[in-house]
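Hi P.,

Sorry for the delay on this. The queue was packed all week, but I finally got your sequence through. Input first:
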Amino acid sequence: MIPAFPDTAHPPTAGDVARVLGARAALWAALIERLEVAHGPLRLEWKHYGKASGWTLKIFKGSRNLCFVSPKDGAFVVAFVFGDRAVAAVERSGLPTELVEALVTARKYAEGRGVRVEVQSSADVDHILTLTAVKLAS
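Then the structure:
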């Protein structure tokens, strides 16, 4: 994935994100709004992880990291890391089989297993809400 915002000196503004996402900007706004409705106040923090990944929005509930949201041209990806208990809960969550399989078969690291969801539709936003609920419950 080519980063939308590689410049280390300038975190993206809301206008920058809307311009890069185009038609998917409404899904970005809906995701943030629905996360706040579901989980209460969130802390949003832009982080630059290097030229290969550029700027990524890190979303926290209190001090807990919920997910990473990476804009790219015309789309965005939401990434999660889950520990063993949360992976088991995702398996029972009713999420689409391909999403569950991507998580279950992901390489396990010390911090857990990762899964990425490219947001294409409101159904993907629904899946992300389920994943954040699982993460907060575990």
